[in-house]
Amino acid sequence: MTLQFDGCAFLRQRLALSTLSYTPIKIKNIRSQENEPGLRDFEINLLHLLEKITNGSKVEINSTGTSLYYVPGTLTGGVVEHECSLQRGIGYFLELVLYMAPFMKTSLELRLKGVTNDRDDPSVDLIKYSAISIMKRFLGSDDGLELKITKRGVKPNGGGEILFRCPTKMKLRPCQWTDTGKIKRIRGVAYALRVSPSLANRLIDTAKGLLLKFLPDVYIYIDHQKGQNAGLSPGYGLTLAAETKNGSVISAESCSIPRAAEGDTTAITIPEELAKEAVFKLLDEIYKAGVIDSFGQTLTMNYMALNQADVSKVITGPLNAYSMQYLRYLKQFFQIMFKIENSAEIPKHVSDKMDDDMSDSDEERNDDDDDDDELKTGSPKILLTAVGIGYHNLTKTLI
Amino acid sequence: MDEKHKSFRKQTTGVKAERRKKKKKEGDNDQQNTSAASTLEEAKRRNPKAFSIQNPIKAQQEFKRTQDIKEKRIHLPEVDRSPLEPPPVVVALIGPAKVGKSLLMKCLIKHFTRQKLTDIRGPVTIVSGRKRRITFIECRNDINSMIDVAKIADLVLLLIDAKFGFEMETFEFLNIAQVYGLPRIMGVLTHMDLYKTMNKQLNKRKTQLKHRFWTEIYQGAKLFLMSGMKNGEYIQRDVQNLARFISVMKFKPSTWKTAHPFVVADRMEDLTEPELIRTNPLCSRTVCLYGYVRGCPIKSDTPIHIPGCGDYKLSNISALPDPCGLPGDRSTKTKQARRVLNEKERLLYAPFSGVGGIVYDKDAVYIELGGSHSHRPSNNNEKTRPINEYVANILSTKQTIEEKVASSQLKLFADSEPIVVEEEQEMERRKMKFAKEEDVDNDDSSDDDDVQEANSDEGDEVDDDQEEDDAEEMDEQEEEEEHSDEEPEQEEFGNSWKENISKKFAISYVPSKNINWTQLVYGDHLNKTNENSDLEENDSDNENVEVGGLFHVSQRKRINANDQEDYTLKTKNEKHNWDLDEIYDLIRDCFVTGKWEKDKDAANLLAEDDAIGDDDDDDDELFGDFEDLETGEKNTAEENEQMDTDNDEDDNKEKTKLETKKANLKSAFDAEYDQSKDPDSGYLDELKKEVEIQTKLNRSEFENMPDDLRVLYEGYRPGMYVRCELTQIPCEFVNNFDARYVIVLGGMPVTESHTGYVQVRLKKHRWHKKILKSKDPLIISLGWRRFQTIPYYFMQDHNMRHRLLKYTPQHMYCHALFYGPITPQNTGFVAVQQTAGKTDFRVTATGVVLDLDKSTKIVKKLKLIGTPFKIFKKTAFIKGMFNTSLEVAKFQGASIRTVSGIRGQIKKFVKEHPGGFRATFEDKILLSDIVFLRAWLPLQVPKFYTPVTNLLMSMEQKDQWQGLRSLGQLKRDKNIRNEPNADSLYKPIERRERAFRPLKIPTQLQRDLPFHLKPKAAESTTMKDPIEEKQRVAVVLEPEEKKMADIMKMFTTVYKDRLKAKQKTQVNRNSQHQKQQKIQELKHLQKHKQLKRMVYKKIGQMESRKNKTTGRHGKHNNNDSIDE
């Protein structure tokens, strides 16, 4: 039953699916061709986190670190505290947990310490905006679901801390989420840590200036932390989220380049530019997104697959490589295939059968010839349809 | 029967009669009271306050009860996942041996199909009606088969020998079936003909059996009678009755069945190459099993468990045409014709029995010749195989030669990567997309950051898919124009990075609508290239590093595609310039400020309403929240103009529109109104509606898809006839194959195909005679699996501690933990101790799964005992509890206790005694006290789990197989007896008589006591203290003292002697004095007598004289008296 993989790519996806399906995995040739072969510190750290939230899992790493054998245990959850590696943001670690969080034995209360915001990994703010709204759909309610940023920390020294709470569910709810809805407001957080708070104001000014062209309802909060709560390194950034009328959230972010190490010459970030970058990223996301943004794609697929044996439907933008790989892995681990259609191509009779909420812009485009021009809602959307595998939480105790 | 009996006369006297009278009276009163009641009602209406709740607690209880009952009636609505064309219903015939199972099955089959089967082996599928197919299974009379059949049967015909009565097997089966969700059960009484017709005994027997049957299932459960035999068959009328019930019965599958797919195999073929078998007869086989999918959809690669064989993976599954399909729709014909099956439609399919006509394989069609071949189906297949296989191979090739060439690989060197033709193809495939890439470049050149862009792309990692494309928003025309130019260019840049970029753009922005996402994601070869393509990247910085000025370190930075860094969102700096208006325009309508769809646009809707007219004013309220005023105005203006021009044509349209709108509103209002009637049902109604929508969606989503595509998404639906290929099956499965044992391919989700610790709630069956012992092996049937394992029984204490039990409780639930397959919570299981042997009730225990984990929490109580060797006030030194000071250190601070209940704490080890320690107690303990430490020892449950493989055994073994023996049984068999602990043995008890000290009362107290309570001196002198007596010390006197003592002794002796003499004389004197006294008294008496005589004499004389004077008679009397 053991599945074999090569290389370190998509490690988190493999680990998550392995744990959820109780299938042992063996990964070989991890960076075997590189100058520094083997698993990196943050990957080891990730495995430690996985060991903390599971019971009976077994990890075997060879002496060079180039091969990994992982036998998953049961997901236990409970109160867990973990010091994340500073090489990667907390988002890297939290994302793995998000996949598995509803299937714990006892509800999860996870405290992660490390880098909350950085340029490479989705920041905790982004996850809060994007993932929580998705999880809410699939869990049925947001009762007990919480992501709190108690301290912020940026690279290189981190010092941030978050608290993630998630209830356990016996099974998820299928979700038909096919109406994008119009964006009604834009919210955001601008944070400035160990730098002048005016930087945050400059961020907001620029961002608002750009966004007001689209929408009048823009509000960006300032999160200027002091002392301990500001982490150990200076930095600032902006996370933006566009909320639609149907409750979906599209988010994007940008963060300052970490303080240069000695002797290194890195670009200095100018707040105006950073704000512009964040806004452009958000607009890009809006251009691409369906009901979910590109971060949420994988998570949504995960929950669609690990659902009851019912049909779930979700409209997304073009799939990114990460989520495409996840689809492949889902097939490999769970034998589930997604029906992927360009939502513009859906024949009318099919869409007619679906409920009213199914009728979205593209359909409208087809049958209304007299309409002068079609709606400009960005890139063509994709309709993902899947029948859940009938996944049950096998660890929850009956009394 | 019809003779007239004397009717029962009711008693007119006695308690019952009185009670009856009373009741009658009350009834009469009630009738009279009805009029009174109506007035009461009226009064209640008039004055409700007077009749308000009198007793709040009672009212509360009543309310609670009604609500409880109400709530109990509600069931959580569930999505109906039953297939539209269901698989054949499984009807199992179960009963002890010689009860007539086979005969009944034959009769039923004959009734349904008009065919007579002689030798039935394995399941028989028939078409019983327009919409129903039935699979008959005869269950063998062993517990393994019964368990398997109980899991799959929809309907059970429980055969009972009326002459013999109920047998153990019947009840065993009922108890097994209850665990897995009771199927429909119908009883069939056979051997009725052994009774003489219609006598009293028979009727009595019937009712007796019926009532016992009812108590076991439910009151009024169907029980059929096979009243007799005719020509070696049951009477047709009886069979007909039974068949009618079978064909109209409805079923509700259990939750296990709705969540787990399974196939009841009705055909088996060994696909192993004959050559392999010839060289190694014991080689593992590849086996093909056929059957209908039941339960829920099954997918390829799902884990499969064959009960009695083991766990496998479904390596290949394919759908075959239905060998026993339902008759087609004949709706055009008359009603009668529609209902009745004609001869052609009465299909029968039983390959194991050698019936079934045409047999389809994946790639061939076999025609069963019947007759002489019918009893050797396997032979038949073997004969046809080699011929067919060759042809079949050709037929089966679904790929064209071109494709084959494409998929072939050429390896130049042993360790080099195979050259695949596909790569070329892929290039071809990419051409179109490359065009866009070119576009991009061209377009970018107009922008100033063109060069930069290209460079950054060059330096890109493979993770290109996420990258974004600047100029994707090109006009389609432009693309078309440049389409022709790009081809030569593309050939120029044959570089791999270029290819990737092209792909990247294709993926990230989907410029054209015709990108095939399914192919992109799931297409195999594309996948491979994606994963295996290496990118070489020359890093200029690292390139020319010199070592020692002599050697170049040729550093080639190879980034393997497999070694990409794991980033969710690869952030890159290429962005649209959203400042530009045309780019901004692209997402204009994503915002509420943009344009809306026609049916959602507030202005549009408003305009429509206006057009409809003013008669429904409510609409404004309904659609009041509109945002687009400006555009709305425009729209209405336009519409008005239009209306002017072609008013007449639109008139009808408008009318119909209006009508539909009104109807919609009305229905919405009705729905709301209906709902508001019962305020409590709102939530439930909503749930129901949700579930209904989901059910509809599930049904409709893949409805119009071709089957071969549909199975990819949904799996093979229940009702499909499939061919399941399994590899690595042990050869015994084929060699010892017996179709009479039902073969089930039980599918399960991936998550349930591993093992762990299973915690269950368990209860020993009340009919099983012995209680169960921890660590004794049990055969458990849980989920699809039957396996042997070693359970530990335990109880959950109030603090959630899992305390080990040596034995299960007699009549109570306890928990058990064993190592076994992970099965979802709430799944029932049944345990037996042994499958062979039929003496006792074999169902040992039943229960339900509660928890699954990878570790155990069971603990056993452990008391460590020590004795004090030195005691100070409240401190004591204790030894014997531990062996080393290290052990003590581990338990420092632990609480300890003496037997008498004095609590204490371990303080620190002491050096003089190894394992000794200092402890403090709440009171002074005695040296004789035993001190103990109560600890809980975690136990390891042995990881023993072996599936019972009865299908792999030979015929003789099947009935005799015994699993792991229990410890007790092993000891008994090997005659091992444990030496008992001498201390544990019982000995006669010797008790010594106990002597108590006398009660000593302090003098002070004595003085205060009332007299009657005071100790009496006499008592004290008489009661000598035995202990003091013994302990008296001999007194040795000094000579002086002795002399004195002697003299004193002499004096006392003399004195005593004198006293004695004195006493003697005194006694003499006293006696003499008494004598004299007596004499004197005598004298005195005599004197007195004489005097008396004289006096009387005188008196007499005087009287006589007197009498002489009065009369003779009197004289005479007087004389007499004087004489006396």
Automatic annotation (TrEMBL), chain A:
Q: List localization entries.
A: Nucleus, Nucleolus
Query: SUPFAM superfamilies this protein is in?
Result: EPT/RTPC-like
The GO terms describing molecular function are: RNA endonuclease activity
Instruction: Give the compositionally biased regions (Acidic residues).
Output: 354-374
Enumerate the InterPro entries for this protein. RNA3'-term_phos_cycl_insert, RNA3'_phos_cyclase_dom, RNA3'_phos_cyclase_dom_sf, RNA3'_term_phos_cyc, RNA3'_term_phos_cyc_type_2, RNA3'_term_phos_cycl-like_CS, RNA3'P_cycl/enolpyr_Trfase_a/b, RPTC_insert
Membrane spanning stretches: none
A single GO CC term for this protein reads: nucleolus
Pinpoint the RNA 3'-terminal phosphate cyclase insert domain residues: 178-286
Q: Which UniProt keywords apply?
A: Nucleus, Ribosome biogenesis
Q: Where is this region: Disordered?
A: 349-377
Domain RNA 3'-terminal phosphate cyclase stretches: 4-340
Choose any GO biological process term that the UniProt entry carries and state it.
endonucleolytic cleavage of tricistronic rRNA transcript (SSU-rRNA, 5.8S rRNA, LSU-rRNA)
Using the UniProt record, give the first listed, main subcellular location.
Answer: nucleus
Give the family, as the similarity comment puts it.
Answer: Belongs to the RNA 3'-terminal cyclase family. Type 2 subfamily.
Q: Write the protein's name.
A: RNA 3'-terminal phosphate cyclase-like protein
Protein species of origin: Rotaria socialis
Automatic annotation (TrEMBL), chain B:
A Gene Ontology cellular-component term: nucleoplasm
- Cite the SUPFAM superfamilies for this sequence: P-loop containing nucleoside triphosphate hydrolases (SSF52540)
Q: Catalyzes what? A: GTP + H2O = GDP + phosphate + H(+)
- Organism of origin is Rotaria socialis
Gene3D superfamilies assigned to the protein according to its UniProt record, in alphabetical order:
P-loop containing nucleotide triphosphate hydrolases
Task: Give start-end positions of Basic residues composition bias.
Answer: 1107-1116
**What keywords tag this UniProt record?**
ATP-binding, GTP-binding, Hydrolase, Nucleotide-binding, Nucleus, Phosphoprotein, Ribosome biogenesis
Q: Please give the biological process terms from Gene Ontology that the record holds.
A: endonucleolytic cleavage of tricistronic rRNA transcript (SSU-rRNA, 5.8S rRNA, LSU-rRNA); maturation of SSU-rRNA from tricistronic rRNA transcript (SSU-rRNA, 5.8S rRNA, LSU-rRNA)
Keyword DNA-binding, does the record have it? no
What superkingdom does the record give?
A: Eukaryota
Q: What is this protein called?
A: Bms1-type G domain-containing protein
Give the start-end ranges of region Disordered.
1-55, 433-497, 610-656, 1097-1124
What positions does the domain Bms1-type G occupy? Answer: 86-252
Per the record, where are the segments of Acidic residues compositional bias? 438-492, 610-630, 638-651
Q: Where in the cell is it found?
A: Nucleus, Nucleolus
